[in-house]
Amino acid sequence: MAHLLKKFGEGVLKPRFVNGLWHKPNISKRVAAVLKKTALFQGQEWPYPEPEKPQHPTKPRGPFGQYKRPKGHKHEKAKQQRLLDIEKALAEQPKKIAEYRESRKIRPPSTLDLLLLRPKEIRMKQYRETTKR
Q1: For the chain, which end, N or C, has fewer CB atoms within 10 Å of the first or last residue's CB respectively?
Q2: Which residues are 22's β-sheet partners?
Q3: Which stretches does UniProt call biased (Basic residues) (predicted)?
Q4: Chain segment 16-36, per-residue pLDDT in tens
């Protein structure tokens, strides 16, 4: 391969476009690297320029993959709002308890009910009134 490099120069290191088709370089990048390494090891200078790497447009890069902070679970995100809702509900709780107890009180039967209904019918009427919502 070194003889090709001496004979044709830098052209054998680059791909060629012939008749609308790209042809591989005669000396692969791996072999070229070995030739360069041996030349530098023998104290000679590598006469061919380094191939330029294409410059990609830079964009801001943030954390990604394993370095990205985990999103977390839905219950962790909603915890603060849930605590606020619980606190608000607990503030209203004594009022709700008082309303419930008031609704469950058995009221004394009216005089008309005492005259017209039997004791069991009075109890059933009181029960229906307390369970009605």
Answers
A1: C
A2: 17
A3: 68-77
A4: 899 999 999 888 889 889 988
Name every residue whose Cβ is closer than 8 Å to that of residue 125 and which is 6 or more positions away in sequence: 109, 113, 117
43: left (phi over 0), alpha (psi -120 to 50) or beta: left
Asked if the structure places residue 64 within a domain, the reply is: no
On whether residue 123 sits in a domain, the answer given is yes
The number of domains in the chain is 2
Residue 19 belongs to domain spanning: 2-41
Tokens for 108, please give them: 């004394």
25 and 13 in contact (C-beta within 8 Å)? yes
Distance of CA 59 to the CA centre of its chain: 21
Q: Is residue 103 part of a domain?
A: yes
Residues with Cβ within 8 Å of residue 51, at least 6 apart in sequence = 13
In angstroms, the CA 133 to CA 117 distance is 24
